[in-house]
Amino acid sequence: MTKRFNTIDGETLMTMPLKQINFIIENLLSEGLHILAGSPKLGKSWLALWLSVAGAKGEEVWGNKVKQGNTLYLCFEDSQIRIQNRLFDITDEASDKVNFCTENAILGGELEERIVNFIKEHPDTVLIIIDTLQMIRNTTKDNNYANDYSDLTILKKLADKHGIAILLIHHLRKEYDKDPFNRISGTTGIQGAVDSSFIFVEETRGNKVATLSCVGRDIDYREIKLERDEDNIWQVVTDSFINKDVLLDDVVILLSNFMEDKEYHKSTPTELAEELSKNRDDKMTTP
């Protein structure tokens, strides 16, 4: 028997009535597998808890509509008393649709079975958060590219099959990189397996201001500057989805403001750098 690719031509594909991408959080979190990586003690778990509660209540997340349904927060690094105390901070009333589990299960065995059984018992499940990825990994396996990709593909298939979002909480490398997505701990197999990556980086340790960088197959690149309020809820300061200027380089913004009241400007690069550096703590230099 001759083996052939099962192909479809472009004209047929463009006329097919296909199911549109379903978002759990509009323009941000679609069905599928996603990763949220940030530094230790930054407040990732506070964010995860708040997302779980918001999904169960159907409350908007930073102005984005939310698909309401059962949520499951697998908080494997916390205790019930800690979760209870945090709930008292972030909400006056928690829905019975938000569910918690502190009992750990390992990927490649019990974890998948328990997730499937939870979905069977709660067929309107929309979001499962696993905190953290490291807690569900088999410690006897090497964390090489093949294993990273293989492990996460198990969860990716589960999310796709059941039409839910699975969000993995993870850590960043300590080493700085201009591209925040290169700081995800592990190999690039992790980024390759997930549908979206969210990088959570604090501006200054302890100042409760952080940037959430978002990239994915179904979303545009997006930067959301957040500040944690007195109730430990991360609130939006700026969002590039609404204000595209947020994504502009500082130099571009400086030049735009500098030329706002000028028809033209003539100077050497050094002179221009000095002009742009006025009233700034960090002085610009030329190559």
Write up this protein.
With about 290 residues, this protein is α/β, with parallel strands linked by helices. About 30% of the residues lie in helices and about 20% in strands. The chain contains 9 helices and 11 strands. The strands form 2 sheets. A 9-stranded mixed β-sheet has the order 5-4-6-7-3-8-9-10-11. Helix 3 links the parallel strand 4 and strand 5. The longest helix is centred in the middle third of the chain and has 18 residues. The relative contact order is 0.14. The mean pLDDT is about 90.
Question: Key features?
Answer:
single chain, 287 residues, alpha/beta, nine-stranded mixed β-sheet, two-stranded antiparallel ribbon
Assign an overall shape.
globular
The number of helical elements comes to 9
Query: How many beta-strand segments?
Result: 11
- What's the alpha carbon Rg, rounded to whole Å? 22 Å
Q: What proportion of the residues is helical, as a percent range? A: 25-40%
Adjacency order of strands in the biggest sheet: 5-4-6-7-3-8-9-10-11
Short description:
The protein is α/β, with parallel strands linked by helices. 31% of the residues lie in helices and 22% in strands.
